[in-house]
User: Which sequence fits this backbone?
């Protein structure tokens, strides 16, 4: 299909950013390879259920159904016409020297590239709450995926907690589907939420839609709560202990807890690809450095929530921009996207409003009791992290070596931000000064057999 | 007797049945279920933690946290959240003695 002289462009991820990047490249006459962990394109937010499921996009994606339909249909048509190569159910586990190591069902294969577009998305940003290692505690994203892609609730009586747009959205979606949602607990107080309001007005319709969803939660929703303990017995969660904004002690029986504080960019591959990072004070996390178009240097481009947490609409725009930058750098005609750039600025303002209204709960993390677990993979406690910081100093990777926090099978994805917060508190410095855990290949666990080949 | 599991099916209930084996016992799931859904339809958890007393039932459901590892009788482990259950699949909640 493609000429030998045409550049090899690989896109990692087939969510809104990856799909739009692919479309833009194909319209310019190129044939990208798209590597995706999903069984079909869509990413997380526009994730599609397996074959044989019958709910319509309107039921699955509500107000976003038209966007989901358009993305799915466009991508499927291009894949069918063989204008791109789609590697589904495949994980890029390492990259070095212009080559990607891709783990798929047949083992590991190596795919070379001239230009790489990383559209790896984001996952829930979680903060530890004592007891969160118990069975029945899930991320908010997990609760949404279970509902969307499997048609199930992960418990009979559900408590959702955290802060951010997903908290309200998942609560409303579960209620609508008939789940028993006992409480939706927001750690952000009303006055903090009001502070983000003027920036949230950058997207009035989206903001109003959020408020309408919030209204559906009724008396289940509580702002400004303090989360104390997830109680559990031998088979899992039994109740959540919390305090309301007035300081009154509350106990809500439940068998499932969904938690999340907005999103954490998935940056492991950007790290391995050599991208530079900066600590973003507002998002309270390390993000890869790029220019406005998504150029990270060395033929690597980043798009979507993996670099800037702007949500699905922003990801579509960023995907187009990254592909246009890639085309321009190849000396090919690139579409003019000045309207996209303007829109991106508006989405950025809105996203900053979200970050302000629904902040990372740094005080809650700093106040964790010593016996609370910070790393769910290996049950490393807050006390162990603090001790390591006292012993080895306030540097993220030293604490990682000493306490093994961030060395478990999730590779720090769900503990890093809390660990850094604890280390910063202990060392008396800012979280940004603690540094970030270095990413290590393979970025997903891979069986040894996958590297041995199959003849 | 198989007691009720963790999950509640809210939609998509009219799918074909699939049979699989969990620790040697026959279980039923629906075609299109992930291994996680299939197991939690009749169980409260997927496995036990290697580092603490508590059972585990998955966490992120998007292949990132690796909390949902279970084993196949022939040895290899799999990620329950991102592997579809298939007819006749033989799963274990504990690691086989002889590690492959």
Assistant:
């Amino acid at each position: 299909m493609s000429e030998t002289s045409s550049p090899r462009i690989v896109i990692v991820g087939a969510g809104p950013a990856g799909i739009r990047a692919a479309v833009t490249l194909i319209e310019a006459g190129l044939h990208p390879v798209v590597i995706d962990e999903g069984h079909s394109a869509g990413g997380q937010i526009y994730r599609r259920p397996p074959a044989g499921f019958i709910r319509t996009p309107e039921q699955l994606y509500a107000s976003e159904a038209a966007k989901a339909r358009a993305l799915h249909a466009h991508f499927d048509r291009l894949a069918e016409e063989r204008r791109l190569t789609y590697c589904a159910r495949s994980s890029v586990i390492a990259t070095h020297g212009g080559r990607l190591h891709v783990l798929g069902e047949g083992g590991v294969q190596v795919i070379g590239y001239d230009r790489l577009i990383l559209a790896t998305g984001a996952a829930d940003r979680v903060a530890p709450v004592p007891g969160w290692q118990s069975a029945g505690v899930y991320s908010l994203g997990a609760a949404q995926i279970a509902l969307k892609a499997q048609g199930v609730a992960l418990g009979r009586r559900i408590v959702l907690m955290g802060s951010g747009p997903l908290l309200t959205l998942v609560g409303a979606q579960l209620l609508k589907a008939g789940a028993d949602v006992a409480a939706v607990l927001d750690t952000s107080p009303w006055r903090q939420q009001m502070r983000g309001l003027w920036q949230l007005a950058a997207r009035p319709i989206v903001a109003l839609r959020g408020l309408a969803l919030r209204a559906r939660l009724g008396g289940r929703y509580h702002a400004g709560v303090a989360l104390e303990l997830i109680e559990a017995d031998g088979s899992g969660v039994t109740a959540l202990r919390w305090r309301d904004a007035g300081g009154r002690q509350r106990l809500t029986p439940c068998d499932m807890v969904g938690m999340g504080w907005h999103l954490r960019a998935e940056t492991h591959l950007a790290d391995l690809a050599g991208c530079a990072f900066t600590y973003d004070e507002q998002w309270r996390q390390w993000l890869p450095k790029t220019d406005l178009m998504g150029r990270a240097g060395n033929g690597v481009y980043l798009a979507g929530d993996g670099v800037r947490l702007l949500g699905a609409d922003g990801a579509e725009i960023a995907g187009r921009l990254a592909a246009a930058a890639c085309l321009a750098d190849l000396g090919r005609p690139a579409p003019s996207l000045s309207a996209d750039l303007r829109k991106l600025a508006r989405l950025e303002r809105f996203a900053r409003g979200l970050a302000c209204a629904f902040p990372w709960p740094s005080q809650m993390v700093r106040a964790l009791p010593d016996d609370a677990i910070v790393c769910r993979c290996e049950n490393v406690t807050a006390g162990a992290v603090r001790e390591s910081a006292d012993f080895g100093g306030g540097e993220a990777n030293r604490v990682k070596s000493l306490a093994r926090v961030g060395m478990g099978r999730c590779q720090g994805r769900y503990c890093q931000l809390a660990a850094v917060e604890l280390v910063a508190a202990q060392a008396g410095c800012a979280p940004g000064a603690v540094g970030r855990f270095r990413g290590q290949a393979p970025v997903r666990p891979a069986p040894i057999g996958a590297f041995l080949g199959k003849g | 007797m198989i007691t009720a599991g963790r999950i509640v099916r809210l939609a998509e209930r009219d799918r074909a049945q699939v049979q699989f084996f969990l620790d040697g016992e026959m279980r039923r799931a629906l075609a299109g279920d992930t291994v996680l859904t299939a197991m939690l339809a009749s169980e409260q958890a997927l496995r036990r933690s290697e580092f603490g007393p508590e059972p585990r039932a998955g966490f992120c459901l998007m292949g990132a946290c690796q909390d949902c590892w279970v084993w196949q009788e022939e040895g290899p482990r799999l990620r329950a959240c991102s592997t579809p259950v298939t007819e006749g699949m033989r799963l274990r909640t504990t690691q086989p003695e002889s590690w492959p």
In short: Chain A has a mean pLDDT of 95. Chain A has 17 helices and 24 strands. Chain A touches chain B through 56 residues (CB under 8 Å). The longest strand of chain A covers residues 226-233.
